């Protein structure tokens, strides 16, 4: 359009050039959700905690609300079913996430 350079491009500096890099927000959500699933399996299946107690433990470990935990676990039901089918033991879980305490605390 006629006059665009003189009236717009020359008067107003262009926004900063984007580098093309993706934002790092939400980068590790899949990894967190997988760890959340492993910990849910641990609390529910190995430690035999009640459902509410499992959610409370996960809330303290992952700093998430109960609703978010339920929502994220619903997306990972296949993984949880696989862990149940394989009857994964604490030693198996420790291989994947060795920084967690996998000691079974029976009630």
From TrEMBL:
Domain of life: Bacteria
Protein name, as recorded: Uncharacterized protein
Biological source species: Cyclobacterium marinum (strain ATCC 25205 / DSM 745 / LMG 13164 / NCIMB 1802)
Source lineage: Bacteria, Pseudomonadati, Bacteroidota, Cytophagia, Cytophagales
